Amino acid sequence: MITVFGEGRGFRVVWLLEEMGIPYRLRPVDLLAGVEKDAEFLAVNPAGFIPAIQDGNVTMVESIAIMEYLMGRYGPTQLAPDPRDPAFPAYQQFLHLGEAGLAASIYFVVGARNYAPEAQRQNWSAGQAQEVFESRLGLVTRQLARSPYLAGETFTAADISVTYALELAQRGGGVTLGEAERAYVARTGGREAYKRAMETCQATKAWAAKAAGQ
Ligand SMILES: N[C@@H](CCC(=O)N[C@@H](CS)C(=O)NCC(=O)O)C(=O)O
Fold first, then answer.
1. Cβ count near 40 (within 10 Å)
2. Which atom from ligand 1 is nearest to the alpha carbon of 7?
3. Are 24 and 4 spatial neighbours (Cβ–Cβ below 8 Å)?
4. CA of 38 to the centre of ligand 1 (A)
5. DSSP single-letter state for residue 152
6. pLDDT digits (tens, 9 = 90+) for 100-150
7. Using the 8-state DSSP alphabet, how is residue 36 labeled?
8. What is the arrangement of strands in the sheet containing 52-55, beginning at the earlier edge strand?
9. CA-to-CA distance for 50 and 47, rounded, in angstroms?
10. What is the DSSP string of 31-44?
11. pTM of the model
């Protein structure tokens, strides 16, 4: 049985597992309570960030790498187009842009806006991270003008990667998405596997509900 440690970007992994119909269990990790108190998790990832997975004797971190591992090991799956498929380059690009360009930058904006001391909420680095997020978001907007999903006509893991980043930006980063992105998130978030993942990820569900009520 695969164990997923932590929500946050672990939501991507849980969603992918639900899409693929692979059994797993979620082991919550409460970063706000202080990861240093969670010795069992630190034994899995001494660096103390989430998500991590354990699959037999395999231990991994990095949500995009974990998704690629799961699709490679338990595929083939339509979530990952074949490298010879015309959809592959866009798939590969947006799979990584969802983390490296979008989530990694907006994550620090979310931190500054919600957790930084009052005087540091408008700091220069948070402004730079916001600009980086917005410039990469422009590539998503352009792609959505061409096709319903980021790799074309079919939903792929690139959509899991980017949807997570857009929802993070909306819920905690103060970002107002445009009409095309909102329709896209409604489309990807309407999937049954997404809904099952949300039921598994109760902390994410509570956070989403709180953000929607604000
Ligand atoms: N690039 C990593 C980012 C992991 C990450 O920053 N996770 C956050 C929560 S979603 C975290 O654990 N932050 C606390 C820390 O980095 O110490 C991934 O995609 O898994």
1. 9
2. 10
3. yes
4. 16
5. B
6. 999 999 999 999 999 999 999 889 999 999 999 999 999 999 999 999 999
7. G
8. 24-27, 2-5, 52-55, 58-61
9. 9
10. HHHHGGG-HHHHHH
11. 0.98
